[in-house]
Amino acid sequence: MEFELLDVIVFIAYALVIMGVGLWMSRGKGNTSEDYFLASKSLPWWAIGASLIAANISAEQFIGMSGSGFALGLAIASYEWMAALTLIIVGKYFLPIFIEKKLYTIPEFIEVRYSENLKTILAVFWICLFIFVNLTSVLYLGATALDTIIGTGDGSIFMESILGLALFAAAYSLYGGLSAVAWTDVVQVVLLVAGGLITTVIALGHVSDDGNIINGMVKIYEEVPEKFSMILDKGEIITPNGKDAWWDLPGLAVLIGGMWVANLYYWGFNQYIIQRTLAAKSLRESQKGIVLAGFLKLLIPLIIVIPGIIAFVMNADPSGNIVSGVADPSFFSSSGSVINDNAAPWLIKEFVPAGLKGLVLAALAAAIVSSLASMLNSTATIFTMDIYKPFFHKKGGSERKLVNIGRITAAISLVIAIILAPQLKNLGQVFQYIQEYTGVVSPGILAVFMLGLFWRKTTNKAAIWGVLISIPIAFYFKVAPNGWSDSVIFINWPFMHQMMATWILTMLVMVLISYLETGGKIQEKSIKLTPGLFKTGPVFNICSFAIILILVMLYAMFW
Description:
Blueprint: H1 5-25, H2 33-38, H3 45-56, H4 59-72, H5 78-100, H6 106-113, H7 116-149, H8 158-207, H9 213-223, H10 253-256, H11 259-269, H12 271-278, H13 283-315, H14 343-351, H15 356-392, H16 399-420, H17 430-438, H18 442-454, H19 460-479, H20 495-518, H21 538-558
Helix pairs in contact: 1-8, 1-15, 3-8, 3-12, 3-13, 3-15, 4-7, 4-13, 4-17, 5-11, 5-13, 5-21, 6-7, 7-8, 7-14, 7-15, 7-16, 8-9, 8-13, 8-15, 8-16, 11-18, 11-20, 12-15, 13-14, 13-21, 15-16, 18-19, 18-20, 19-20
């Protein structure tokens, strides 16, 4: 089904609404650094919760995680469901410390707890990560999806899509800062949930024999029951390209292993995620926003992972394989490998009718643009507050200049990402790819933060060594799957096990160095955990209990 005039009208209406909301809500909010980077610390709980999800859900999830649903099944939903539990931990144990310290950025905590030198090192690292990995991959995935849905899938509108998404995100985020980003996210998250549900409902109607969505869900469960297994055994699921899914999601590691490293790093210490919680009216308001995001995370697999499973069922042969001649040709690359990440774009293009297709496309654009805007704002915040202000900004200098430096930084970052995005090709399951290679650096940074927060004897030198030594430790584990599997020197483990082992070994090294340096002396800059610091309100406690109860039920149903 082609993209029609009604779809164009719906999409343009969406774009105008987002631009209008962004520019209206940011009026008068760019005069000081607190206005621009922390939305004047005025965000209510519902805006924080919505903005957390909008910043998180991007093409990486909409396209990449749906592709992993196509390849692996519901097991990939552990990233979403375990994130709900992680958010509770962040809200209860991390946010009270961050807000008490009145932080603008996550690197700023490093300066408060360790040193300015380490803060600068990590600030540079995060800026590079945001530009060269996050911004670039979101632009690439988003443009690929738009080219598949609107165009012919041959790259005919790929560059136009990159430029359009980039300029759309820049149009309101560069001017309005976090205020524009957060308030537009409220609209964006409603749209992306609605658009995702529309795709799921229509796809379930097509896969069933009578158009009933309940029967459609029953049918996909009966045809591929193995794809509804949350805790995978070795050899239980083989992906369309012949890989054992256990290597991506190794059994109980999604509950008690390396998944925690990925989730705690991402939700607790990732600037473009945590920044909106630092902009709350109060700690209690921020914590209520956190649990709202937790409830939304429970819903996300229904609108992202299930469509991937539906696409698999509709394209598999009677033996459950994706083969040429049965599956749609768009699922095969020129080399013959299966392109898992075409699952969501294929469903939208083939089954969503005119008008609704424009709404679903707007939802996809909302996911992409909101994440781009958040990443741009966070890149600008870290560069301005952690690099420019301490080293180049004159004491008593203009706040307006800081805001302008932030805007220039965001613009330059976006230009670099636009140039690099087309270079990403043939990544397979992009969601898994990003998780795996972020896992090289996340364990060391998580070790530095966790010991910095909760072990008062951690020294600055130990933290620096922790960051540096975690990389070779991570690469030691990475070598085995790349040709050294039979060596007695190297260990061939799934990347989740690698992340957990790297995190534990890095913390042990940091503890050892701290004792060797000071003999176990409490550090002057350590965080003193006062009585009542982690006390939470009744709303947070009740909602947290409800989330945990739902999680237990979900894993019991789909174990």
